[in-house]
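Why does residue order matter? Because the sequence determines the fold. Keep that principle in mind as you read this record.
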Amino acid sequence: MRLIPCFILLTFFLLSCTREKTPTDFETITKDDAWRQTIATGHFKRLSKGYTYYEFSNPQADTVLVLVHGFSVPSYIWDSTFRAATQRGYATLRYDNFGRGYSDNPDVVYDVTLFSGQLKELMDSLLITKPVTLVGLSDGGRTITHFAANYPTRVQNLVYVDAVGFESMNPRGTAVTVTDKEVADFKSSDNYRNMAKGQLTDFYDSVPFRGWDKKYESLMQYRGFVRALISTRVNRTDLAGDHQKIRDAKLPVYAIWGEHDTVVVLNDIRDNMMKRQPTLQLTVIPKAGHLPHMEQTRLFNDILFNEIMAKRGKKS
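Structure:
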């Protein structure tokens, strides 16, 4: 039997230990001026917390639609809806939240105040003064809730799509700051390594969306991405007070839900949702998971444009 020299065994052992102790880190790109020059699509606006990436079609149109994305996938998640709204002649705005996509990843507390403030600043900078239809997907539901509660006269319709923000939460005191150790610990976890593949579980049937996970991998290259996600999750607050303000303002409220959503399960929040927004009009889309606007595009567009937008947000 041939013996393997001890120094070779030792080398393999040390390399193995190094791999276990060194966290995976996909974050290699800083979003600076030079990097922004490489982005061929959309536009950037410098706001108080940093640059925001956005696309705004048909800006002179009378009816304005604002698409707010969810927890981690940025505005490209609205591709089909943005195209459909633009083709129908609506002024249509989509943008990337701070910490996501092409917008800056500032070292701040990522909470609903930050995201709502970003939306207001962006709308102000684009001179959007007409009441708008706000469509919030998943975590974007929290953003549009806080915005509508604080600026009800700027809202024509509220449309929640498989949205977060109706759940009851314990009161939280001061904002939570994310530590370097928390970031490093997450980057050492299997959850971090499998984040991209995990995006496929948002679909009822992921087969038509092969490659969706690969697109997500590009998001993970930007420095500060993980910190932003952790901060967003630990700084969520209960929005019951905001929902009360929306009721008081008598804003038209709608919800569109994928029947098979396993991310925000409708049955888990339905009672709370109807209690907080008793006039809400709910539509459940069959054969769809967390992203019904992608899996059942034609049906989703029919509901949004022919049923909701056609009403022109007349308050009852």
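The chain has 14 helices and eight strands.
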